[in-house]
Amino acid sequence: xxxxxxxxxxxxxxxxxxxxxxxxxxxxxxxxxxxxxxxxxxxxxxxxxxxxxxxxxxxxxxxxxxxxxxxxxxxxxxxxxxxxxxxxxxxxxxxxxxxxxxxxxxxxxxxxxxxxxxxxxxxxxxxxxxxx
Length: 132
Hints:
mainly alpha
């Protein structure tokens, strides 16, 4: 591992920035839903949505700029095996509620978009990992 100043900066950007940004995004979104008095606010749904998207970001950054470790493999297994099922359940649930508010509608749209964004991300990872 690279423990130079550049290595530490890369480590922080790859391993700490995505989870911190994801948590801040979730807290701001939950606060905004509470402020707007959204009925049946999809707080848990958005938590799962943000975990999946920021997980994709972290796996992508790890593959491109850092060392592949066991934790990255666990995250990838979650994103490939568990997240699609959760997103399908969320999509079905939010489809019925999409007329309640814009938050519900955006939650539904982002759940559907995962099925396009995740395969594209893994394709980029596969192509970037090929050694010619």
